[in-house]
Hints:
Bound molecules: arginine
Shape: globular
Strand content: 5-15%
Oligomer: single chain
Mean pLDDT: 95
Number of strands: 13
Amino acid sequence: MKKLLECISDEVMNAFEAAGYKREAGKVTVSNRPDLCEYQCNGAMALAKEAHCAPIQIANAVAEKLQGNKVISKAEAVMPGFINMFINEDFLANYVAQMAASDRFGMEPADKKMIVVDYGGPNIAKALHVGHLRPAIIGESIKRILRYAGHEVIGDVHMGDWGKPMGLVMTEIQERQPNLPYFDENYTGEYPSEPPFTVKDLEEIYPTASAKSKEDADYNARALEATLKLQSGVRGYRALWDHIINVSVNDMKRIYKILNVDFDLWNGESTVQYLIADMVKKMKDDGYAYESDGAIVVDVKEETDTKEVPPCIILKSDGASLYNTTDLATIEERVIKYNPDQIIYITDKRQDLYFLQVFRCAKKTKLCDENVTLSHIGFGTMNGKDGKPFKTRDGGVKRLEELIGDIQAEMYKKISENKDMDDAEARNTANIVGLSALLYGDLSNQAVKDYIFDIDRFISFEGNTGPYILYTIVRIKSILEKYKAQGGNMEAAKIGNPRNASEKDLMKALTGFAQTLESASEELAPHKICAYIYELANALNSFYHETKILSEEDEQAKSEYIALIDFTKEVLETCINLLGFEAPERM
Ligand code: ARG
């Protein structure tokens, strides 16, 4: 379906042409003076010079041609040469009705691309903490938006599961349980199917081991040796590592599930180790990689760089692979397996330079084609109310599960004020609404910006918050239920012409859907959806306050109102789903 602004622009372009001017001048925008008009065209001003006449003359001639137009109800030329316009109500109502009847509310499918989204990035054997919130929920939303736009999308969690932390954990396990068969090189039997630790143990083991390794050189050496044994495939170490992965991944899945985040691939750094030796050899053979201070590097600086871009280090001097070695091999694997048009990485923006190096290196060494788009969405920091990175009261890093729990608990206090709800429903509702507060509080900011985690503001039912959006949806649900209870027939309800200004505003707000989704998917920007639904929810609530809906006596009018709010609900629900949350039945 053509976008509403395109429909209006087409008419104005025709009018420019009919008045003897060039079409291109007829581009229309939403008015920046809603007190004066709904849409405006500033084309006459730009045209005046080459047409050798005053802009107002052109604007007048064009406005003249727009009289009696089917799309534009009123067009007026005002000094110095603006064309101010209002939209025709028949046209608007028809447009909205057509949206409601179309797939994806009239949004045209994108040129289908194959896209891999790399997000989440948790590390095995460490508890998910607040720093893992943003990559998970921004990535999840981007994945959903791209899918909705019509792309084929694979989400990959890309865990850190291969480096020294693994060796540390194994060393500490050996300290505590030296007689386990995993450490016995002569053991040839089957290893136990049950892990010798719980997830709680693991979360305590890693920090303990990490602290010990910093103090005790011998311990540290043993951890490095254990890492090497794992990486070179020693049977017992592999078996123990499998347990670590399983226990850790199961727990991650549980927490990601609370956030409505899920991945198609649970790959990690370990997944692509088999590619590394050949990849490095080829980079050397092709003349891209060379030795520098014992390490193997690829130059990635470019002439136009305004800041220094250091070489990409492919292997350390001791021959060990690095974070970026794995990322490069992962690009190679994704190209082989999925032939993607684009790979998108969601990480903290402090990794900007890192990804610049990796992307340049991948292109230069031809791991991927020139026309594969490699994108990095670097997000800002979630800060506490003091403006500093979010910390627990004792200065530690808060666990993600605890953070989610806090917001749900606050929400429960609010929800349980509603005496109609039994405790089970109140808890369940608090979880749903609490999640919306958390997700919306984050996603409504442009990802690159830092933001302040402010529970009180996020859980408010008023203002630009998740709960406000849900409150609006629940309000609509409740009206629809009552309508049905009155014997109203939902099937027969059809959108009709607006009967008052707030109804027209609601319709206009609805028409922004396709444009919003297009920019959100092209710019990988969930915050655009938040801005749109906030405006839409405001329009719905104004309409609600200014219109008798259920008590309307004119049955035709009533059923048209019902159709319009029902459609608004569908649009809002679609949008919150793209942000990763849903609405309860009541709240
Ligand atoms: N595990 C990494 C970290 O904790 C994040 C991984 C991001 N993704 C990637 N392909 N490098 O910082």
